[in-house]
Each structure stands twice: as C-alpha cells, then as structure tokens.
Amino acid sequence: MAAISESDILEKRIGILESLVFGLADKDTEYPKAKSTNVKCIDALNNVHSKINVSVAGRKNITETFNKLSDLQKYLDPEFTDELTITPSAKTEMILAEEDFIMQTASTMQKLKELEPIISSEHVKGAPYFSSSSMSHEKMQELSQVHLNQQDQAAHLTDKAKALLGTYNSVITTLSKQFVVWDQMLTDMEIQAKPVKKAD
C-alpha cells in the first residue's frame, strides 16, 4: 500500500471542511474557481474599519461606549455577579453538592478517552461509509427522517390506544349501570313473587 503524502492528507482535510461548510450545496456553482475578484480580504476589512470610524466620528456617546466595551463585558458576565454574591465557602458547597455528577462525567470522559484509539483506528477511517462526509451527512438526514416518522407513528398509536381505552371505560360504565338496573328489577320481582301472609 502506497504511503499517503502530506498533500493528500491536506486535500482530504480541506474536503472535510468544505463538506461541513457547504453541506449539500454545490460549492463550484456558488463559488466558481474561474470567477475573478479584485477584492482582497485586508482591503475589505480596512474599508469596513474606515466606515465605522466615519460613522462614530463626532458622536461621544458611541465612542465612550466603545471604550467601555471591556468593562461592559465584564459586568455582564454571570461569573462577575457570582464573585460579588457567592462566598468561597458557598462555591465549595455547590461543588460538593454536584460531586456525584462531576465524578460520573469524569468517568464517562475516561471511557471516551479509552475508546478513542478504536474510533481513530485505520479500520474505521478506511470504511467507505465514513470516508465521505457528504454520504455521512445524507445518511444522518435519512436516519433523522426515519426517527421523526417513528415518533409520529408512536404518537398516532398512543392516541389510538387512548381512544380505545376511553371506549372500553364507557362500555364498562354502561354495563355497570345496566347491571344495577337489572339487579333492582330482579329484587322487585322477588319481592312481588313472595306469598303474602294472611292475617289470622
């Protein structure tokens, strides 16, 4: 088996990145290689920077806000409020309260680390199914659609089962009422059938 060159590895990584960025879209149609452009990235950034400077020129409030962005980010950070309101002992108690969850997460991470050599093995990488990101993406979409269909079917069966249970309960209730009526009628008939004792 021929050794894989660095250019092949780089080309493969670029292909994976393009699949993640463009998905199922046709990259060559939206961004043709033959299309010429004179816009440079640095020139575009400088143009945007110049427009921003022109927009805020003479506006003290905006300039002061820009100067205080770091302070605003600091004050808006939830951790800043926690530092002011939660004491170190309270933080310790919170961590101890989540000890079981932290230990479970650490155990799960350890298992994932142990499984990493298997996931990164050449057998998995060389599998045709996993070698193409677009194929994997399409397969995941198919599986997602199947899962959604199964959820709809389960919901339909649940509704149908509820309807059947409702019908069953109605039938049982009706029969119970009818049995009560029949029992009362039978009792009345038994009373009427008893011979009446004649008075001496």
Automatic annotation (TrEMBL):
Q: Name one GO biological process term.
A: cytoskeleton-dependent cytokinesis
Q: Which domain of life is it from?
A: Eukaryota
| Pfam (any one) | Dynactin_p22
User: Record's InterPro entries?
Assistant: DCTN3
The entry's cellular-component GO terms read:
dynactin complex
What's the name of the protein?
Answer: Dynactin subunit 3 isoform X4
Organism, scientific name: Octopus sinensis
| Gene (UniProt) | LOC115218031
